[in-house]
Write a structure and sequence with these properties.
alpha+beta, Immunoglobulin-like, eight-stranded mixed beta sheet, 28 helices
Length: 691
């Protein structure tokens, strides 16, 4: 600043400069104040705590939730629920909290919290908690509140929870479904402050929230994070008294998150030295196995070495959450033994493994080898016959419990899995004409599995015929009919038996057949059909027949037309052919009904492929070829025009057309030829009876 002089002219200039500087300073101060206000406004929690009473809960206060739905999307809901997200002991948990409308028109609920709860959030919704019809999460900003102790001080975990609630990527689970989309990033200084506060408050417990804290720091530090993480880890590792769990936590983070191989190796060596037989050493050893190696001998050696160092018998004495390690090890080792044709070692594994692991080994190796003829049937029989009794003996070991929410679901899965393994073995025994053994395994099937699989039912028919056990054939056929799991040959056999018992009179056969189907089965079929009625225009078409002629909409006039879209590469399509043949035969003399098989989405000489396959298998179909789309040169012109109706491009796909409109549409194949025939027959008869 100029000092005033005695010279008047000089003084004029000096005061003018002073005036300008003051004005600049005023403007700068205004800008600084505005920026400060802006930062202060932005560096605040986004979430709203006004739905919680008290607003600043502490100690053992019961937490009240009061929600005013007026002028919100849930205003007219007659059942508002609360999805509760609780941060307790550094873990997020979700629960459902019912709400009741009080006299003031507010939806209310009460929540008791434990001393370990540091943060509570809530989302209001109507319907299912996982797929709500309507929800309110404060327009993506959230409803939440941090809890304090009896003295009003923040609880351990509160600051980290506050950060994670607004940046769910920090959370190690539990916030799933709160936001419809990831919230926008928060002010870094605000997040940095939360991290610093949590470290001051809970630093000694860092292992409980280590990964979440590091994610928060990564969000704040950006490119500077790797250096920070390495320095932090080195600081923690300087503690010579770290226990096994602490070293394990630091190892996993360094190895899989930070991907610092040098530091991970250092931690690994310390673990192996200080805790060579511990759970962390077991995990490290598992991580170092060579399962991904292309050298099978190396794979086998690494797995065998692991089991020598950490035998499953020792783990079972003090089991922890590392059961997945043995599941993976035995699966990898068993498959390697099988591929290397070391079948004696493969069989020996079944002395140690549980049902879940043994089932997977048999599914992947025995079933695959049987289906694709990878191993001679005699050899496959020797291996399967050695392991299947061991698998059956362990069927009640509850090894599937960890995969399901309750025991009933686990048991149902276990029975289904064993039925599938028995199916493969019975099929193999039938191929080898070992009928007596095959029949023995039939009795090991579950009650549902005995008659619900049409293909297995036919195999059991062949077994009974091979044993010349005529007394058991009719009960098998009748039980299969009750389950609606019949093949064309089974129908033929049942009809032959009926005619023999009724002096060749078939007048009552259809009534007898209908009586075998339970009312439950009929109701289920009607319910299924009712779900698949549609009303969609059938696109114009000109499709080539296998005989070279062409079919157009005019040929379908006045008829109910069943169309099966299929391809030679589609296994479910081919598996459904026996059911389609039953339908074709049933309506062969009905001039009001037509059935067409339309080959689609095939390549190369698709016409010859389709015709040769169908004729080679002995099917008697009206075979059409889907037209080629000139825009794409793909053989899918008609099928692709119907995708808006189908919703996807999967096959097999059945449609029923009447008066130029698609009236019925279903996809997939249930596995039962008779069930497929009954489904489409019900559709045809229903359309016939329309006014």
């Amino acid at each position: 600043m100029c000092m005033p002089h005695t010279d008047k002219d000089s003084c004029t200039c000096t005061f003018s400069t002073l005036k300008i500087n003051i004005e600049v300073m005023k403007k700068q101060m205004i800008i600084i104040l505005l920026l400060a206000v802006q930062v202060a406004l932005y560096a605040q929690p986004r979430f709203d705590g006004s739905v919680f009473k008290p607003r600043q809960p502490k100690g053992a206060d019961a937490l009240q939730i009061l929600y005013d739905a007026r002028n919100k999307d849930l205003e007219f809901s007659d059942e508002v629920k609360a999805a509760l997200y609780v941060y307790e002991n550094f873990q997020w948990k979700r629960d459902l909290l019912p709400m009741v409308k009080n006299a003031d028109g507010l939806w209310a609920a009460s929540l008791a919290v434990t001393p370990q709860v540091a943060f509570v959030a809530v989302k209001f919704f109507q319907g299912d908690i996982n797929q709500p019809d309507v929800f309110d999460n404060n327009e993506g900003k959230g409803y939440g509140v941090a809890l304090a102790d009896a003295k009003g001080n923040a609880k351990t975990g509160a600051y980290l929870a506050e950060a994670a609630f607004q940046a769910p990527g920090i959370a190690t689970g539990g916030l799933y479904g709160y936001y419809a989309e990831e919230p926008t990033p928060l002010d870094k200084s605000y997040m940095e402050g939360l991290a610093a506060k949590e470290l001051r408050l809970s630093g000694k417990q860092y292992l409980k929230f280590f990964e979440s804290l590091m994610k928060l720091q990564q969000l704040v530090l950006g490119e500077e994070f790797p250096a920070y993480a390495s320095e932090t880890l080195q600081t923690y590792l300087a503690d010579k008294n770290l226990g096994e769990d602490a070293l394990g936590e630091l190892y996993q983070y360094t190895k899989f998150r930070l991907k610092d191989e040098r530091l991970a190796t250092t931690i690994e060596m310390r673990i192996m030295k200080e805790f060579p037989k511990g759970a962390t050493a077991r995990f490290v050893a598992y991580n170092n196995t060579k399962g991904s190696s292309s050298d099978r001998a190396e794979v086998i050696a690494s797995y065998e070495d692991f089991l020598n160092r950490f035998p499953i018998t020792e783990w079972r004495k003090q089991p922890n959450k590392q059961g997945f390690i043995y599941y993976a090890i035995y699966r990898g080792l068993g498959s390697s033994y099988f591929d290397a044709k070391q079948f004696d070692k493969f069989v020996t594994l079944y002395d140690d493994i549980d049902f879940r692991t043994g089932n997977e080994l048999m599914r992947w190796n025995i079933m695959r080898a049987y289906m694709f003829k990878l191993v001679g049937q005699d050899t496959l029989y020797q291996v399967a016959e050695a392991i299947l009794p061991k698998l059956i003996a362990r069927k009640d070991d509850d090894s599937y419990l960890n995969d399901f929410d309750d025991k009933a679901m686990a048991d149902a899965n276990r029975m289904k899995q064993l039925d599938d393994r028995l199916f493969t073995h019975i099929s193999l025994l039938n191929d080898l004409k070992k009928y007596k053994e095959a029949r023995t395994y039939f009795y090991e099937l579950s009650d549902d599995g005995k008659y619900s699989n049409a293909e297995l039912n036919e195999i059991n028919l062949q077994v009974l015929e091979g044993l010349d056990d005529g007394k058991q054939i009719l009960p098998l056929l009748e039980m299969s009919a009750r389950q609606n799991a019949m093949t064309p040959r089974m129908f033929e056999k049942l009809r032959t038996i009926y005619l023999a018992q009724h002096n060749g009179d078939e007048a009552g056969y259809e009534g007898y057949l209908g009586s075998l189907k339970s009312d439950e089965q009929k109701a289920e079929m009607k319910a299924y059909v009712d779900q698949h009625w549609v009303n969609h225009p059938m696109p114009d078409f000109q499709l080539e027949h296998a005989d070279g002629s062409f079919v157009t909409p005019a040929d379908w006039k006045g008829k109910i037309v069943v169309v099966d879209f299929w391809a030679t590469w589609c296994r479910p399509c081919i598996m459904a052919f026996p059911g389609m043949q039953l339908l074709v035969d049933k309506y062969a003399t009905d001039e009001a009904v037509a059935v067409y098989m339309v080959g689609t989405m095939q390549t190369g000489d698709y016409k010859s492929k389709s015709v040769n396959f169908v004729r080679g298998e002995g099917y008697r179909f009206n075979l059409l070829h889907d037209a080629v789309n000139p825009a794409t040169n793909e053989q899918d012109l008609v099928f692709k025009q119907l995708i808006p109706l189908f919703g996807d491009s999967s096959i097999p796909r059945k449609i029923v057309v009447k008066d130029g409109r698609v009236r019925y549409c279903s996809g997939g194949y249930s596995g039962s030829p008779s069930k497929l025939m009954d489904e489409l027959s019900l559709v045809i008869e229903t359309l016939k009876n329309e006014n």
